[in-house]
Amino acid sequence: ANILKQDALRVGAELITHKEVITAKITHSNALLMASKEQIQKLIAKEKLQDFGLKNLALFLQKDFLKPKKAELMVVINVNEDSFNAKSRVSEEDFEKRLNDFLALKPEYIDIGAVSSRPGSEYCGKEEEFKRLKKVLDLIYEKNYHEKAIFSLDSFDEYCLEYALNKGFKLINDITSLRNLNLAKLASKYEAKYCLMHMQNNPNNMQDNPFYEDLLDEMTLFFKEKLELLESFGVKESILDVGIGFGKSAGHNMILIKHLEHFLQFNKPLLIGASRKSVINAYFQSEIKDRLAGTLYLHLKAFENGAS
Questions:
Q1: What are phi and psi of 189, to 5 degrees?
Q2: What is the mean pLDDT of residues 278-307?
Q3: Which long-range contacts (CB under 8 A, 24 or more apart) does 61-64 make?
Q4: Whole-angstrom Cα distance, residue 206 to residue 105?
Q5: Domain with 198 in it: what CATH number?
Q6: Least confident of 16-30, 190-204, 223-237, 278-292
Q7: What is the pLDDT of residues 229-243, one digit of tens each?
Q8: Residue 165: partners with Cβ closer than 8 Å, 6 or more residues away
Q9: Are residues 196 and 240 in the same domain?
Q10: Domain range for residue 12?
Q11: Based on the number of CB atoms within 10 Å of its own CB, is 253 exposed (0-12), middle (13-18) or buried (19 or more)?
Q12: CA–CA separation, 97 vs 111, rounded Å?
């Protein structure tokens, strides 16, 4: 408490404690911190360097005071015939038009995928995945589209990912979250960002009665272990995706959106992908094409709770 009080004073804030804290006659005390947001941000940085549990206090403070002020947009183009939302799919021939339509929206990220990960789906195989991707990846590079946004490849195949990274892609979007450690090596080699997504089991069985003893605790441990792995491989930038609809019930999904700020403790951007997913249908019965309102609501709530 005395260390915290001195640090608070140094940033221009004030910490009110019991009068006997300074004499060490008591071992515990409630405290009242009076500070502006700017002062709290400075205090967070100081307490991260301290011992005696003050690092944990810094993580607690940053959950509420380091929420993003502006949301970033990721658009998704699926080069396959199997993704659950038919309107997200595009043929090889129509890809460039769809890409230009999306670029007009000025998104920060453009995510390309050739493999469906909808519930019950089966992996098409790396040869088929690359066959679907090659021409669009070449197009993106040859026409310098990769300079107009951060391009992401939704894949867990080493060959496809390395090909994309050589074509100007800057983000590995790995729904399997490092089940293949060679993907971390690729991210390090190409200085790419890495998106870690939580998924229980695999797409073909992930929605078979998903169960958690403690959803938030289990996912916190999951992300902690995965981030340590990325750090050990020298990956400098990462994004966390709680995996809405990937091995979660409708209730699990809503808990994650409501308590998303819990994961701000990792001080990483939080990605939410809930567009037109079945969690909306669970609370408002609707066809995929009619889930725009639910999509907007879930993403608004996610942003309010810390999504980037």
A1: -60, -40
A2: 94
A3: 62/264, 62/265, 62/267, 63/261, 63/262, 63/264, 63/265, 63/306, 64/261
A4: 33
A5: 3.20.20.20
A6: 16-30
A7: 999 999 999 999 999
A8: 172, 186, 190, 192
A9: yes
A10: 2-65
A11: buried
A12: 15
Structure tokens at 226: 């995965």
Segments in 167-277 forming alpha helices (H): 182-190, 215-232, 250-258
> Which token pair is 275?
């567009």
Query: Per the structure, how many domains does the chain have?
Result: 2
Same domain for 140 and 7, yes or no, is no
Tell me the β-bridge partners of 33: 15
291: helix, strand or coil: coil
**Same domain, yes or no, for 253 and 132?**
yes
Task: Give the residue, 107 or 50, on which the prediction is more confident.
Answer: 107
What tokens appear for 178 in the block? Answer: 């490092």
Give tens-digit pLDDT for 145-182. Answer: 999 999 999 999 999 999 999 999 999 999 999 999 99
pTM, full prediction: 0.81
Using alpha carbons, select from 91, 93, 61 the residue that is nearest to residue 78: 91
Of the candidates 202, 170, 199, the residue with the CA atom closest to the CA atom of residue 186: 170
- Helix (H) or strand (E) run with residue 158 in it: helix 158-166
Q: pLDDT tens-digit profile of 265-274?
A: 788 999 999 9
